[in-house]
Design goal:
alpha/beta, 4-stranded parallel sheet, 13 helices, 9 strands
Length: about 325
């Protein structure tokens, strides 16, 4: 795995440690984690640390780490630190985030103005295009989406692709939503049309994960809620014998034939953000069964659908 030098500065101990663990495989500074106070030169605490000596390629900076402010309301020495790394490390990428969200008033090649928690930050910069300012609140490592961003960037990505993943402005998804729809159809024919619960025995190993998948679909509420959707179901789903035939049909790989090529599996993986991302193993297992082809059991589909649903929710929330 390719690595880059990453400087992480975040004074929230819990979040910093979790982000540190996530970026460790990508970081040439494996033991590096710091709070705002660590930007001072350890040999001269009146001076900002000279980052040009170690040349980090990426800075992950929590914008609310400052403790000192000038009379103008601009944070010092954080302002000075940003000017230094942007000027003296011309190619370094700078990611700003905050647990309270950031409002970007201006971002140009020469100037950045943002507000956070009612406080204005006004920076003169020399290369504003190197900044990625995440507007939404980042209160956990997973919300930062740093792993898929670094997977893409350290493989063959560009600055723009890296920033887009962090900002949630990824290319439109095509294969994952399509696979989710096929999973929903599969799970629907494996559900009791009266209760919305899995059409399996409670002792079946697939029962619990199928319950989670159907809940993620909102299937139980659909078939049992007020203005019940049960009336809209196909007669074949209501008849036990016909439903059994449908179950046999969707368990055959031919029903999933739109995904029966390794190229489509690769494209779905690219949309996912890399095969090391959380949940991909469950989706890959389903796709392998389709490509080989093999029998497609309920547990496999339910686990894949839960992973896809979580992944798609993560894309929509940014």
């Amino acid at each position: 795995m390719a690595q880059i030098k990453i400087r992480l500065i975040d004074s929230d101990n819990i979040r910093r440690r979790k982000i540190h663990e996530e970026i460790r495989p990508f970081n040439e500074f494996p033991e590096e984690e710091a709070s705002f106070q660590d930007i001072w030169d350890p040999d001269d605490e009146t001076q900002i640390r000279n980052e040009a000596e170690s040349e980090p390629g990426l800075f992950l900076l929590h914008i609310n780490d400052q403790e000192d402010e000038s009379d103008s309301g601009t944070a010092e020495p954080f302002d000075e630190y940003l000017k230094h790394i942007n000027k003296d490390l011309h190619n370094a990428l700078i990611v700003l985030y905050s647990g309270g969200g950031i409002d970007v008033k201006e971002q140009t090649a020469n100037h950045i103005t943002v507000t956070q928690a009612g406080k204005e930050w006004d920076f003169d910069v020399t290369n504003g295009e190197q900044f990625c300012i995440i507007r939404c609140s980042i209160n956990s490592a997973s919300e930062l989406k740093i792993v898929p961003a670094l997977e893409k960037y350290t493989a063959d990505g560009t600055k723009e692709e890296f920033f887009n993943i962090l900002l949630g402005v990824e290319d439109s998804l095509e294969y994952l939503p399509a696979l989710a729809i096929l999973c929903q159809g599969y799970l629907a024919v494996h559900a009791n049309p009266d209760t919305g619960e899995p059409d399996l025995t409670v002792n079946d190993q697939a029962y619990a994960v199928c319950v989670r998948a159907l809940e993620a679909m909102g299937w139980g509420a659909f078939v049992t809620g007020e203005g019940t959707g049960k009336e809209l179901l196909s007669p074949n789903l209501k008849d036990p014998e016909a439903r059994q035939k449908l179950q046999n049909q969707v368990c055959d790989a031919s029903w999933w034939q739109v995904f029966d090529s390794e190229d489509l599996m690769k494209q779905a993986g690219e949309e996912w953000g890399g095969n090391q991302s959380k949940g991909w193993a469950e989706v890959e297992e389903l796709l392998k069964r389709i490509v080989e082809p093999q029998h497609i059991p309920p547990k496999c589909v339910a686990k894949a659908y839960c992973a896809i649903a979580e992944r798609l929710r993560g894309s929509d929330s940014q």
